[in-house]
Amino acid sequence: MNSPIRRLAAVVTLLFASLFISVTYIQVVSAKELEEKPTNIRTLYKERSRERGNIMVGNKAVATSEPSDDLYQYLRKYNSAAMYAPITGFYSVVNGAFGLESAENDYLSGSSDELFIRNLGGLLTGEQAQGATIETTINAKAQKAAWDALGDQDGAAIALDPETGDILTMVSKPSYNPNNLATHDIDKAKASYKKLNADELEPLLNRTIRQLYAPGSTFKIITSAAALSNGWSADSTANLTGVARLDLPETTATLPNDDGLPCAGGTPTLRQALEKSCNTTYGQLGMDLGQETLSEQAAKFGFGQALTVPQTVVKSVFPSDLNKPQLAQSAIGQFSVRATPLQVAMLSAGVVNGGVVMRPNLVAKVTSADGKTVSEPSPEEFSEAVTPEVADSLKSMMVSVVTDGTGRPAQISGITVGGKTGTAQTAEGQNPDVWFTCFGEKDGKKIAVAVVVEDGGRLGSEAFGSTVAAPIAKAVMEAVLS
Amino acid sequence: MASARTASPRTGRNLEAVLIAVAIGLAIGAYALVGLGVNDALPPGMLGYGAGLGALALVLHLAVRRFAPYADPTLLPMAMLLNGLGLVMIHRIDLGLGKSFTESAAFRQLMWSALGVVAATVIIIWLHDHRVLSRFTYIAMAAGMVLLLLPLVPFIGKNINGARIWIGLGGFSFQPGEIAKIALTIFFAGYLVTARDSLSLVGRKVLWMQLPRAKDLGPLLAAWGVTLAVLVFERDLGTSLLFFGMFVGLLYIATERVSWVVLGLLLFVGGALAAWQLFAHVQARVDFWLHPFRDDILPYSTQIVQGVFGMASGGLIGTGLGEGSPWRVLYSASDMIFASLGEEMGLTGLFALLLVYALIVERGLRTAIGARDGFGKLLAAGLSLTLALQVFVVVGGVTRVIPLTGLTLPFMAAGGSSLLANWMIIAILLRISDSARRPAPEADGPLFDLPVDEIPPELQDGSNSQGDDRDQYGSGNDQETVVVR
């Protein structure tokens, strides 16, 4: 009977071998795939139970992880509620993550490879990985000023440091309270999300980088840049028209000036055309410059380029295959030209920074839980949109807009301010989206701002960029420079 | 031969004592880790736990030292280690679920451990010779059948978690199948040792295989029928696989005929396929096994899926004891304890545990090879095989090698009946190994009163031509040898 027992022992060995294999398969070979399955609540619990790093604005934490004694070990708290919501986004146990919480999740949750080595000790002692702290580039004072100035109007305000690309304010309205989404009360979190998601005004949308608007007359900065780069000059009337109403070729349609009057008596300089925001002058300029030149100039400022700040920015659009009338419309920021507020801010930023557009960025520094710097992005050049000479001319033209033209409401004594208004018709019978983009400069310190107010804001159909948007931009500049 | 035995042979008892100390040390260490992991402090009950476990081990060790001094020295420490680590994991899951000590599963498991050790001690002390058990062959059969089918009896049978393998009396539930396992092994061994001659007779030849005679098929068919009844009426694939596997295995050992194995496998596969065709609950089990992640199945296959997720989160070295969240799996302390262990102890820990199980089985089969009588061989092999099959069915179920069934992981899973039965199995194995390793005595007179028909022909003339040429375990000698003076 012994040899069958030995053979049976061999069979038992095979049975055990199959167990060794299956265990290895589950715990090593397919472990990662299993961990990443969307139905794996364990991975979610594990991640959600981590102490996430703080999100800082200056010395103040706008998002923190508080110990919590319920389902998960830590509750995410947003200390300024709606004002910083577009920046922080939210980290919800049922609704996923948004904003920086999503874009910088690897750092905040501590799962980033760069943090791995630091957490190696913890891996062996079984301690939970701790998230890294994200310091943002936001200027708390400017953020508050923009938030208050925008008031109950819907729209967006974004400010940049033109020399570094640092994003100083990021305000989007209407906003939401991220705490309602981050709550561990699952039913409440789900209901809040459903409500916000169904809201027509789209409070969850970060308008500064995720919404495309018709840029209106702010696009004339690009048309001016293209003209100055192609033989036109700021104070010459050569090759410019100033008629009250521009006949468009290939069609019976015309393009009028806003006030229905000729521009500077019919013979404007480029500077005067920008000051008065003359549609006919720029419409003709657009047709003279041509599709390719305008499109290239727009791309140099960032149109059509992929950007992350680190949240992904929607690409601004300059249309292709335009006929002449469409080209004239596009040159004044109408037709199907679309831009994010960030893109419009980058126009002013490039102009005041000698023609160089810096890559916009929201994260100043990443610090691990033990206080070491993990990442500190240095300013990075995004593009050279125009030559320094063209930038100088453009800058002085935009200053003239504020001293003598449509941008007067943005004047601040003691500060050099240049800007451009915009009033974009969105649809027949609808109030316009109004714009103001500007730069301010004082003692070498610079700021670039873009503000858009939807649907005419408080003034409705009577709204202009100068009356509604410019005061908001002014408040932001004052907060930073005064 | 006598001259070779004058020096007193090594019993291995001191080695056993050292190994037990190591096993208990490991268990206490694990207990401390759980405390540190969950509460950041050494658990207050640590010394009590260690002392309790140590006392249990000491009682059993002393009984073995006194009454079965030549028993295999590794079986007891390995069982102790598994029992101890199982208690730790159950305690850990209690903590995760926030249960107080008195209502905790660990407390009950500790009581059952004590009962199991007491039962093992009683067996070691009272059962001087395992062959006494062969006298109860048919009583064991009757008892085994009754125990196995008891859960089907109305009023006392209970359907828990979809399987009808429990009986309940008052507030107390018990899986009689666990004890039936031992009774039926005794029956199979006793029956096969007498019937092996007729069962090995050759019938017709089909293809390359010599089939048994048709009239000898009765017992195989009977076992098959009972197995299918268990599968269909008690909805317990694990138990049926266990019994049938053990029966076929023992049939093979007794007759040395592969044809029995082939026939048995064909019958089992055929029966299982038929059951799969006919019964929705069997189909559901198979679906949970093959496609647990499919959207329409996911709501029902939570148990296996969460178990697999738990093990995956453990990875190579585990989260560490007390650092994971094994309680999120359904039945994490009982049916799914292997997944819980995998999460916190990782692949490393599971390999170690599987190796311990494999070693227990290996020592059991070695005992079978070394046993000096046919009944002992079959009994030891049968008991080892049940352990091996049970580990395979449980771990294979949890890791998706086979469909998941409701068996318990021997010594580790929360469940009193299983713990009791497995300690009894260890005790019987210790007893058989003692007689297998015991040097032949010097005194005259028959050592065993074998039935005459079990004495090999070459010994019946009174001379010991074969002799006992074994040192500790059987040599490669395939001839069954029985020492008779």
UniProtKB/TrEMBL annotation, chain A:
It holds the Pfam family Transpeptidase. Residues 52-134 form the Penicillin binding protein A dimerisation domain. InterPro entries: Beta-lactam/transpept (IPR050515), Beta-lactam/transpept-like (IPR012338), PBPA_dimer (IPR054120), PCN-bd_Tpept (IPR001460). Residues 155-478 form the Penicillin-binding protein transpeptidase domain. This is Penicillin-binding transpeptidase domain-containing protein. It comes from Kineosporia mesophila.
UniProtKB/TrEMBL annotation, chain B:
The chain crosses the membrane at residues 15-34, 46-63, 75-93, 105-126, 138-157, 177-195, 216-233, 239-255, 260-279, 336-357, 378-402, 408-430. InterPro entries: FtsW/RodA. It holds the Pfam family FTSW_RODA_SPOVE. Coiled coil: none annotated. It comes from the Bacteria. Keywords: Cell shape, Membrane, Transmembrane, Transmembrane helix. It is found in: Membrane. Residues 474-485 have a biased composition (Polar residues). It is a multi-pass membrane protein. This is FtsW/RodA/SpoVE family cell cycle protein. The keyword Transmembrane applies. Its main location: membrane. It comes from Kineosporia mesophila. Signal peptide: none annotated. Residues 443-485 are annotated as: Disordered. The keyword Membrane applies.
